[in-house]
Amino acid sequence: MKTNYACSMLLFFFSCCLYAQEKAGITGVLKDPNGNLPGATIRTADGQVTTSGLDGSFSLTGLPEGEQLLTFSYIGYVPVTKTIAVSGAKVVDMGVIQFGETGGTTIEQVVVRGGMANTQAKALNIQKTSPAIMNVIASDAIGKLPDRNAAEAVQRVQGVSIERDHGEGRYASVRGTPMQWNSTLINGNRMPTSEGTSDNTSGTRSSPLDIFPSEMIEFVQVAKAITPDMEGDAIGGSINFITRTAPSSSVAKISVGGGYNGQAQKGTYSGSLLYGDRLFNHKFGFIVGASYWKRNWGTDNTETRYDFDDFSIQDFELRDYKGIRTTYGIHVGMEYMFSPSHKVFFRGVKTDFQDRETALEHTFQYQAEKFVQRRREGITGVGLFGGELGGNHRFAEDRFLVNWKLSSYETEMKNRGVRYNGGSGTTSYNMATFQTDASFTNIASNGRAYLALDAPAGYEATTFEKFLPIFASPVSAADMRLNQLIAIQTPSFEQDRVAELDGKYHVNAKLTVKLGAKYKNKSLRRGGPMDIYINTQQPTTLSSLGTEPYNFNGGYMQETGVDYSSVLFDGISLKQLDGLFAPDALAKGNYYHLSRNEQDPESAASFYSGTENVSAGFAMAEWKATDYLDIIGGMRYEHTDLTYDGYEVTERDETATIREITNSSSFDAFLPMLHLKYKPSENMNIRTAYTRTFARANFSDLNPTERINPLSTIPSISRGNIHLKPTSAHNVDLMGEYFFSDIGVASAGVFYKKLDNVIYAAQSFQQIDGVLHRLTQPENSENGQIVGFEVGLSKRLSFLPDFWRGFGIDANYTFTSSKMDVPLYTIDENGNAVKTITTEALPNQSKHLFNTALFYENEKFMARIAGNYKGAALALVQGNPENYRWYGANFTVDFSANYRINKKISTFIELNNLTNAPLRYYHGDNRRLEQLEYYSLRGMIGINYQLF
Hints:
It holds the Pfam family Plug. The structure is a single chain. By secondary structure, the protein is mostly beta strands. It has 2 domains: 2-74 and 77-110, Immunoglobulin-like; 134-535 and 563-946, TonB-dependent receptor, beta-barrel domain (Maltoporin, Chain A, Beta Barrel). It has 8 helices and 52 strands. The chain has a 22-stranded antiparallel barrel. The protein has a 5-stranded mixed sheet with strand order 9-14-15-12-13. Strands 1, 2, 5 and 8 form a 4-stranded mixed sheet that branches. The longest helix is centred in the N-terminal third of the chain and has 17 residues, at 2-18. The two termini are 54 Å apart.
């Protein structure tokens, strides 16, 4: 009913506008030799102002009859004026207005020349004229950075940080907020995720961006204070990836490259092509692009588990990873211009990310007194597929604009072909585990091992980096007994179908109103089947199967200076691993077989599916109150219906029952927003905004699964919570921006977010039949807050003489502090549950983010060295604060250079991780590392050829 009412109001609005009084208008398209110019400012003599869209087009409406004096302003070009006559209620099409060429009616005098300057000017003009507080990067700038996927491209934006997987960027966050609080969009709509781990239990709303090649991106818009016409679930901000669309003229480009990964000691290869043109008297435009990136990778990894009471080492692991990753993408964009006022378009994408990972792992179990070796191979991947059909239409002499779009995007994680059961099926991971009893000499008098900061008196201990296990007696391959085989699948699926319609009406030169409606249907499923084969026969040993020499990859963990060769054993080959999973081998092994699926009590909880239907509507107005002040305000409303299917597991008297269950709920989000944009000069903005935003619960939190186990030490209940309220935030932002005429910007701002209903993993107690049970389920906390500031500077040193004027700097810093109140339940001496409130920092939120770059550019050469810093962040609340898991601070340095041989050919070089920065996680104290990873240097050289 609410949706029908909103649609009726929207149709009434459209009907009224179609009969609006007609006045004269002016349209046109702004271009330079590098393509369309978005974000240009067009101003009439009487103060009416408009800006060009992403395709460079503009429209001025409601003009009086007679000559009109227009001023065109664009960062990087000298502003100019043009006069055009209008008569009657007609729209005058000025056609193409060309910047940056000599002769005729073109606008000349480029202030700064160079390939990066032109694309940076596009981004800054969009940022300058945007009603929202946002940062923008453009496709050419992405191509001039050593960034091969969307996550690594966006990390250069002020206030954006990323999480990496084996050295490559995967997830992005704005202002250090939790990943799931940020909205990742493709062409304005939320990107589906299909995100999961090997056990498929994470179920977050964070989109993995390594599936998205950077070559497909036209612009990236990072909005930090949204407007009502944007998706409302964006507490941290929204990151909108706009894919390439039809070009303004013919274009054909080819790029090929090859490189080397220092950790894998193997090659890397990439290639891309792009072709576009306009036909039928420029009415039909199209672009087709494809990219392929194959790279070998390697990771040296060391991990440790500690005892929560005395911090002794429980397990110490050495992991050597090798792998091959391939990413390909195909994208197409088409549009047909029926007239300057009517256009339809189509955009489609297909991407695929595949990771073939192998590992040989050694685990030294100090407290259990065992030594374990695991050999595994996995082929996982996820693809994005979808497209959108839409149209832009102008009526009533261009005073009334109608936009519509139908879209469907889906992501799917599949089993990618590790042979299983003799070729009759495939899995994502196959694992074989060997173990033997073992004892160690580097232990204290109490039989435990420690790092130096926790060691008891008289015990000689080392730092984590120098820790080396020492066997009390030799261990050989003949001692290593095959313990178990594990075959894991990681399927998941998610699809979004969206229909949207909005209308924008220019009431007069000062006021514009906009209404819109959107409907989205999301369907998803998660679940990770697993087969476990426990070996019941003694004779199968590592030596009886045969091994291959251990590959040290040029020196395992050589950065620490420790020689691990004495404790690293040869392992079985991948061919031997496959052979263990053949049907005859499984039959002969007399294995005890466990199937972890929907029918198994141990795993049923990880299987669920769901649908989410979202109906949204918005109303907003843009009012030019004075020549210096713009006011943008309005309301967004989103109604969400949830239905999830899962399993209820109840254990009683050593038996378990599994029952299918379905839970449903709904919630409403009312999101008022107000933006003030004060322009004391043409090149300065002072912005302030109040916005209301929210973040939906993760899919895994909404999973209706419930498991009751009365047989554990403390009877327990674990369940999802379909009735979770979304986390919501009142956001206040203040930002100042000054745009340099020689292409650059200085900015500074502060922000505050008051949080309500923060979702956290809660533990409480519940009475069932007179028995006190420990209840674990996600809940909404009391409240919280985020406060911070950011500063940035992008400046070309054009005031310097001659050669030195080609230098420039990019630098930005973001500080964020957060806290939330979390209820904590304990049991007192009388057996009663007692509730207290603790204050914690938000998980995965870094206080300090910093980007810096020094670049040089002239008409032929460009070089850039860039550093990216992400400060420490709380990763996991566990036990008391001394046991919390933290992400360690990380600083990476990259280099890129490009040389233009002639107008068609250029060469490039890209170098990543110049300082070989490690990934670190630590346990309470940054000296007590839980995980340490090194990836080494990787790089690529190549050539770009522009046919036309």
